[in-house]
Protein backbone atom coordinates (compact mmCIF):
# COMPACT_ATOMS: atom_id res chain seq x y z
CA UNK A 1 0.00 0.00 0.00
CA UNK A 2 1.13 3.55 -0.72
CA UNK A 3 2.34 5.31 2.42
CA UNK A 4 3.46 8.59 0.89
CA UNK A 5 1.38 10.47 -1.67
CA UNK A 6 2.89 13.39 -3.58
CA UNK A 7 0.98 16.44 -4.67
CA UNK A 8 0.70 17.74 -7.33
CA UNK A 9 1.13 14.87 -9.76
CA UNK A 10 2.66 17.26 -12.28
CA UNK A 11 4.06 20.77 -12.06
CA UNK A 12 5.18 23.05 -14.87
CA UNK A 13 7.14 26.24 -14.16
CA UNK A 14 9.60 28.65 -15.75
CA UNK A 15 13.29 28.77 -15.00
CA UNK A 16 14.02 30.94 -12.01
CA UNK A 17 10.72 30.22 -10.31
CA UNK A 18 10.40 28.18 -7.13
CA UNK A 19 8.87 24.70 -7.18
CA UNK A 20 7.02 23.25 -4.21
CA UNK A 21 6.01 19.63 -3.94
CA UNK A 22 4.12 18.07 -1.09
CA UNK A 23 4.01 14.63 0.42
CA UNK A 24 1.37 13.28 2.78
CA UNK A 25 1.57 10.02 4.67
CA UNK A 26 -0.73 7.99 6.88
CA UNK A 27 1.15 6.51 9.82
CA UNK A 28 3.89 7.81 12.10
CA UNK A 29 7.33 7.73 10.57
CA UNK A 30 10.95 7.32 11.59
CA UNK A 31 12.23 9.39 8.68
CA UNK A 32 11.19 10.76 5.31
CA UNK A 33 13.40 10.98 2.26
CA UNK A 34 13.17 12.75 -1.08
CA UNK A 35 14.55 11.30 -4.30
CA UNK A 36 14.87 12.60 -7.85
CA UNK A 37 14.52 10.52 -11.00
CA UNK A 38 15.54 11.82 -14.39
CA UNK A 39 13.81 10.25 -17.36
CA UNK A 40 15.12 6.74 -18.02
CA UNK A 41 17.47 6.80 -15.05
CA UNK A 42 17.58 5.46 -11.51
CA UNK A 43 16.48 7.36 -8.44
CA UNK A 44 18.96 9.65 -6.71
CA UNK A 45 18.75 10.47 -3.02
CA UNK A 46 18.32 14.19 -2.28
CA UNK A 47 17.70 14.62 1.42
CA UNK A 48 16.61 12.75 4.56
CA UNK A 49 14.67 14.35 7.38
CA UNK A 50 14.07 12.58 10.67
CA UNK A 51 10.81 12.65 12.59
CA UNK A 52 12.29 14.94 15.25
CA UNK A 53 13.44 17.49 12.67
CA UNK A 54 11.28 20.23 11.20
CA UNK A 55 13.41 21.64 8.41
CA UNK A 56 16.53 20.78 6.45
CA UNK A 57 18.41 22.53 3.71
CA UNK A 58 20.73 21.29 1.01
CA UNK A 59 21.84 23.82 -1.58
CA UNK A 60 18.70 25.06 -3.37
CA UNK A 61 16.58 22.42 -1.64
CA UNK A 62 14.52 23.02 1.46
CA UNK A 63 12.52 20.26 3.10
CA UNK A 64 10.01 20.72 5.88
CA UNK A 65 8.27 18.10 7.96
CA UNK A 66 5.07 18.55 9.93
CA UNK A 67 4.42 15.37 11.87
CA UNK A 68 1.16 16.70 13.31
CA UNK A 69 -0.22 17.02 9.77
CA UNK A 70 1.68 13.99 8.52
CA UNK A 71 3.09 15.97 5.65
CA UNK A 72 6.34 17.15 4.13
CA UNK A 73 7.22 19.63 1.45
CA UNK A 74 10.17 19.95 -0.90
CA UNK A 75 11.00 23.42 -2.13
CA UNK A 76 13.40 23.94 -5.01
CA UNK A 77 14.42 27.57 -5.26
CA UNK A 78 15.52 29.35 -8.43
CA UNK A 79 14.72 26.33 -10.56
CA UNK A 80 16.75 25.39 -13.62
CA UNK A 81 15.89 23.37 -16.70
CA UNK A 82 18.17 20.65 -15.31
CA UNK A 83 15.77 20.25 -12.36
CA UNK A 84 13.24 18.70 -14.76
CA UNK A 85 12.61 15.26 -13.28
CA UNK A 86 10.21 13.24 -11.16
CA UNK A 87 10.47 13.72 -7.42
CA UNK A 88 9.50 11.02 -4.94
CA UNK A 89 9.04 10.99 -1.22
CA UNK A 90 9.81 7.81 0.67
CA UNK A 91 8.83 7.06 4.23
CA UNK A 92 10.13 4.69 6.86
CA UNK A 93 7.29 3.88 9.21
CA UNK A 94 7.80 3.98 12.93
CA UNK A 95 5.96 0.79 13.74
CA UNK A 96 8.15 -2.27 13.97
CA UNK A 97 10.20 -3.44 11.04
CA UNK A 98 9.68 -1.74 7.72
CA UNK A 99 11.60 -0.63 4.67
CA UNK A 100 11.14 2.55 2.67
CA UNK A 101 7.80 3.01 0.91
CA UNK A 102 7.74 5.33 -2.09
CA UNK A 103 4.97 7.56 -3.35
CA UNK A 104 4.09 7.83 -7.04
CA UNK A 105 5.98 11.06 -7.49
CA UNK A 106 5.58 14.58 -8.80
CA UNK A 107 6.69 15.21 -12.36
CA UNK A 108 8.38 18.62 -12.56
CA UNK A 109 8.94 20.38 -15.88
CA UNK A 110 11.09 23.50 -15.84
CA UNK A 111 10.98 25.44 -19.08
CA UNK A 112 13.85 27.73 -20.13
CA UNK B 1 32.98 3.99 -6.73
CA UNK B 2 31.13 2.63 -9.77
CA UNK B 3 27.72 2.71 -8.15
CA UNK B 4 25.09 0.00 -8.40
CA UNK B 5 25.44 -1.85 -11.69
CA UNK B 6 22.50 -3.57 -13.32
CA UNK B 7 22.29 -5.70 -16.43
CA UNK B 8 20.80 -5.91 -18.92
CA UNK B 9 19.56 -2.33 -19.34
CA UNK B 10 16.88 -3.47 -21.75
CA UNK B 11 15.32 -6.88 -22.27
CA UNK B 12 12.63 -7.83 -24.73
CA UNK B 13 11.32 -11.34 -24.49
CA UNK B 14 8.32 -13.42 -25.34
CA UNK B 15 5.74 -14.66 -22.90
CA UNK B 16 6.79 -17.89 -21.26
CA UNK B 17 10.52 -17.24 -21.49
CA UNK B 18 12.82 -17.08 -18.49
CA UNK B 19 14.26 -13.68 -17.60
CA UNK B 20 17.27 -13.11 -15.36
CA UNK B 21 18.18 -9.65 -14.15
CA UNK B 22 21.51 -9.02 -12.47
CA UNK B 23 22.79 -6.56 -9.92
CA UNK B 24 26.15 -5.66 -8.43
CA UNK B 25 25.72 -3.49 -5.33
CA UNK B 26 28.16 -0.88 -4.12
CA UNK B 27 31.13 -2.50 -2.46
CA UNK B 28 30.74 -2.52 1.32
CA UNK B 29 26.98 -2.09 1.30
CA UNK B 30 25.23 -4.84 3.25
CA UNK B 31 21.62 -4.20 2.23
CA UNK B 32 20.23 -4.88 -1.22
CA UNK B 33 16.76 -4.18 -2.57
CA UNK B 34 14.87 -5.09 -5.73
CA UNK B 35 12.11 -2.67 -6.76
CA UNK B 36 9.70 -2.71 -9.68
CA UNK B 37 8.40 0.50 -11.25
CA UNK B 38 5.28 0.83 -13.39
CA UNK B 39 3.10 3.79 -14.26
CA UNK B 40 0.10 2.22 -12.59
CA UNK B 41 1.62 1.00 -9.34
CA UNK B 42 4.64 3.24 -8.94
CA UNK B 43 7.73 1.87 -7.20
CA UNK B 44 7.13 -1.39 -5.37
CA UNK B 45 9.59 -3.23 -3.15
CA UNK B 46 9.94 -6.84 -4.25
CA UNK B 47 12.58 -8.18 -1.87
CA UNK B 48 15.18 -6.97 0.61
CA UNK B 49 18.44 -8.74 1.51
CA UNK B 50 20.63 -7.98 4.49
CA UNK B 51 24.10 -9.55 4.59
CA UNK B 52 23.06 -11.77 1.66
CA UNK B 53 20.05 -13.16 3.54
CA UNK B 54 16.50 -12.47 2.29
CA UNK B 55 14.76 -10.54 5.05
CA UNK B 56 11.50 -9.44 3.45
CA UNK B 57 10.13 -11.03 0.29
CA UNK B 58 6.50 -10.13 0.90
CA UNK B 59 6.50 -7.98 -2.22
CA UNK B 60 7.42 -10.81 -4.58
CA UNK B 61 4.29 -11.11 -6.72
CA UNK B 62 4.10 -14.86 -7.04
CA UNK B 63 6.11 -18.03 -7.36
CA UNK B 64 7.21 -17.10 -10.85
CA UNK B 65 9.56 -14.58 -9.23
CA UNK B 66 12.68 -15.62 -7.35
CA UNK B 67 15.73 -13.73 -6.12
CA UNK B 68 19.11 -14.86 -4.91
CA UNK B 69 22.16 -13.23 -3.43
CA UNK B 70 24.94 -15.83 -3.46
CA UNK B 71 27.55 -13.35 -2.23
CA UNK B 72 27.93 -9.73 -1.16
CA UNK B 73 28.67 -8.50 -4.66
CA UNK B 74 25.98 -10.15 -6.77
CA UNK B 75 22.24 -10.66 -6.86
CA UNK B 76 19.79 -11.98 -9.43
CA UNK B 77 16.07 -11.60 -9.95
CA UNK B 78 14.54 -14.33 -12.05
CA UNK B 79 11.11 -14.52 -13.63
CA UNK B 80 10.04 -17.89 -14.96
CA UNK B 81 7.81 -18.04 -16.90
CA UNK B 82 7.48 -14.39 -17.84
CA UNK B 83 4.11 -12.78 -18.63
CA UNK B 84 3.20 -9.49 -20.37
CA UNK B 85 2.08 -8.02 -17.03
CA UNK B 86 5.67 -8.36 -15.80
CA UNK B 87 6.70 -5.59 -18.18
CA UNK B 88 8.22 -2.86 -16.01
CA UNK B 89 11.48 -1.26 -15.02
CA UNK B 90 13.26 -3.27 -12.35
CA UNK B 91 15.63 -1.42 -10.05
CA UNK B 92 18.27 -2.73 -7.74
CA UNK B 93 19.37 -0.52 -4.86
CA UNK B 94 21.90 -0.92 -2.08
CA UNK B 95 22.41 0.69 1.27
CA UNK B 96 25.28 0.85 3.71
CA UNK B 97 25.21 1.13 7.46
CA UNK B 98 21.86 2.92 7.37
CA UNK B 99 20.21 -0.39 6.60
CA UNK B 100 16.66 -0.35 5.27
CA UNK B 101 16.01 3.13 6.63
CA UNK B 102 19.05 4.86 5.28
CA UNK B 103 19.85 6.38 1.94
CA UNK B 104 19.36 4.05 -1.00
CA UNK B 105 21.67 4.04 -4.00
CA UNK B 106 19.85 2.94 -7.14
CA UNK B 107 21.12 1.36 -10.31
CA UNK B 108 19.97 2.62 -13.69
CA UNK B 109 17.35 -0.10 -13.95
CA UNK B 110 16.51 -2.94 -16.29
CA UNK B 111 13.60 -2.21 -18.61
CA UNK B 112 11.74 -5.47 -19.29
CA UNK B 113 9.22 -5.88 -22.07
CA UNK B 114 7.37 -9.17 -22.30
CA UNK B 115 5.50 -9.62 -25.57
Descriptive report:
- The complex is a heterodimer of chains A (112) and B (115).
- Chain A is mainly beta and 112 residues long.
- Helix content of chain A is 0%, strand content 57%.
- Chain A is built from no helices and eleven strands.
- Chain A has strands at 5-7, 10-14, 19-24, 29-37, 43-50, 55-58, 61-66, 71-76, 85-93, 101-102, 106-111.
- In chain A, strands 2, 4, 5, 9, 10 and 11 form a six-stranded mixed beta sheet that branches. Chain A has a five-stranded antiparallel beta sheet with strand order 1-3-8-7-6, with no helix packed on it.
- Chain A is globular and about 45 Å long.
- By secondary structure, chain B is mainly beta.
- Chain B is 0% helix and 54% strand.
- Chain B has strands spanning 5-7, 10-13, 19-24, 31-38, 42-50, 53-56, 65-71, 74-79, 88-95, 105-106, 110-114.
- The model of chain B has no long low-confidence stretch (mean pLDDT 93).
- Classes of the chains: A mainly beta (112), B mainly beta (115).
- Chain A binds chain B through residues 2, 30-31, 33, 35, 41-45, 48, 88, 90, 92, 97-105, and chain B through 4, 33, 35, 42-43, 45, 48, 56, 91, 93, 100-109.
Amino acid sequence: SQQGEEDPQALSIQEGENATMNCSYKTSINNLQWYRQNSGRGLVHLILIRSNEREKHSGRLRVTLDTSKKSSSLLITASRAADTASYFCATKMNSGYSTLTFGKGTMLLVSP
Amino acid sequence: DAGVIQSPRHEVTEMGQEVTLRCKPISGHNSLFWYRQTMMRGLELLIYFNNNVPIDDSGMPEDRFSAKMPNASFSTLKIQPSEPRDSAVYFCASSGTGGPTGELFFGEGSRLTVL
